[in-house]
Amino acid sequence: MIKITLPDGTVKEYSKGSTPMEIAKSISEGLARNVISAKYKDTIVETVTPLNEDGSLTLYTWNDDEGKKAFWHSSSHIVAQALEELFPGAKLTIGPAIENGFYYDVDFGEHSVSEKDFPAIEKRALEIARGKHDFKMHPVTKADALERYRSQGNEFKVELIENLEDGSITFCDHDTFTDLCRGGHIPNTGIVKAIKILNVAGAYWRGDENNKQLTRVYGISFPKQKELTEYLQLLEEAKKRDHRKLGRELELFTFSQKVGQGLPLWLPKGAALRERLEQFLKKAQKKAGYEMVVTPHIGQKELYVTSGHYEKYGADSFQPIHTPKEDEEFLLKPMNCPHHCEIYNARPFSYRELPKRYAEFGTVYRYEQSGELHGLTRVRGFTQDDAHIFCTHDQLDAEFKNVIDLSLYVLGSLGFDNFKAQVSVRDLDTPEKYIGSVENWEKAEHAIINAAKAKGLDFVIESGEAAFYGPKLDFMVKDALGRNWQLGTIQVDYNLPERFDLTYKGSDNELHRPVMIHRAPFGSMERFIALLLEHTGGNFPLWLTPEQAIVLPVSEKHEKYAEKVLKSLENHEIRALIDNRNETVGKKIREAEMNKTPFMLIVGESEEEHNTVAIRRHGGEDLGSIGIQDFVDLVAKEINSTLKSFKN
Ligand SMILES: [Zn+2]
Ligand SMILES: [Zn+2]
Q: Which annotated residues bind Zn(2+) (predicted)?
């Protein structure tokens, strides 16, 4: 018999050689029907793998990330079989599951695959799936594995196998298809009920542009047709909300090939919006006891050697700038932290003066391969709403609470109400991986968990996910389309205070090391605005949106009155425009709708006579004619309902 420990801690005995599926059946038939993947002693196994020793077992269904991964990886085998049949001579390379679906990289040789081929691929793949073929893993010798792919002329698989150790190589069969694979499959192909090929793109073998270019076939699959339909609807909606498209339409930002890839240029409306976001946070930070600092965009190479960033990122970053005469070396700033450590080092501190909280909207530069760049979410230059807190160990608890308050304020004011937190702590089995004393780690982890509880956060604790230099808390925000974005990390750091020899004088008159906390509620201005655009579809909260109102005179006759309305809105600090072009009101309304202007104020004969404005909300709601002051009050009320003041 073997002892199997289940996730809830219960230990059950099974006969040696029992499979995860058999164990699922012993728990309940319902569970067995839904189990598609399993993890045994921290390794993903097949649901039919015989278990021969004591160990912990987790069973996964479609509702688990690991379940989806197995489902999509298995689907890539099915699609690979279809591709091999439909495009004879196609050489398969690798086919992993990804966040949403899977891909397979294929060398199609003389064939080229495009959208018109998708229906045939989907049709054949579904036929294969319906055959309910079991996925069967079996070991193979290195010689046999090499022989198989050499005879097929598949140099890619040969290269993969050459790097594997004999005795560790496995193949996976289903139907008539065989693939080199480490495992992690669903029980059989029949569970896959819907398959969609999403697109094809070029991809270099092993991501190296000196290698052959392959075709990456992207697909997704589901256990129900209905789920595929819903997913495709979501994709459509995501396309409409793509921040690159909205950013162009709303004239917020642009890119120029002349300036360079991955370097966003903020247009006036976008710059003003950023400014409002910055002011919003600065105001709250001031109340939370932060002080603003300013540091340069470059720093001596030595600075990053001290911080350790050079060792870690040097080769993969922008290369140093050399001064012409002195032979100095400077790096574009990849992080603000080293600069802030030197600000702390500018004078000695006593424990009575801590915490010090230095904040900066600091622009940093990081090299990203051109193929990795994406709108505002993957760029080469971006501005962090960065701050570093230097405090004593005893202050960690209060500081964490303070930062969580600020983060919650930011999320609330911007309409994010669906979020979770993740607390990343040490892996207690590998203490050698972490720097700093065990006592301090315990204190810090306790402080974070304590603060998360005290602030009522919905959080999970992930052990082993902490950085080597300290535990952290991340906010994960779910956007309107149900996608997860990681925002606002609060990171404890024992490493930089050590490397920069930061000290403070304690009550014992001795020098002590402060703890450092890195935090950025937005993360980066660029990525945050991208998220806001996609979350709101461009309909920003009223306090933040570019123009809050547009005045639309119905004819030239009412222009004067429209100007008067505009003036009084401006006097009340409402951001408004006037559209006095010689166009029909219908056309003006359509354009204002396109621009997502929240309020359209239509003025004609009756409005002028009664000193009112006829209000139409973005989206079409007619609010009738009201006095100008009433409109001003309406705007103020709506703003106050989302934008509360911080810590009043
Ligand atoms: Zn596989
Ligand atoms: Zn930092």
A: 337, 388, 518
Q: 133 vs 127, 139, 329, CA distance in Å?
A: 11, 19, 61
Which residues are part of a known binding site?
337, 388, 518
Nearest to 405 by CA among 443, 451, 458, 444: 451
Nearest to 293 by CA among 389, 390, 400, 387: 387
For residue 492, which of 524, 451, 533 has the smallest C-alpha distance? Answer: 451
Which amino acids are annotated catalytic? 337, 366, 384, 386, 388, 472, 518
- Determine the residue type at 227: E
Strand partners, 136: 173
- Give residue-wise pLDDT tens across range 529-548: 999 999 999 999 999 999 99
Q: How far apart are CA 345 and CA 504, in angstroms?
A: 10
From the CA of 385, how far away is ligand 2's center (Å)? 10
- State the ligand closest to the CA atom of 70: 1
180 Cα: distance to centroid of ligand 1 (angstroms): 7
In the annotated binding site for Zn(2+), the residues are 337, 388, 518
Is 0.70 surpassed by the pTM of this model?
A: yes
Q: Strands 472-478 and 484-493: what pairing?
A: antiparallel
545-577 per-position pLDDT tens digit? 999 999 999 999 999 999 999 999 999 999 999
User: Which ligand sits closest to the CA of 386?
Assistant: 2
CB atoms within 10 A of CB 265: 11
Mean pLDDT of 263-284: 96
pLDDT at residue 419, as a whole number: 93
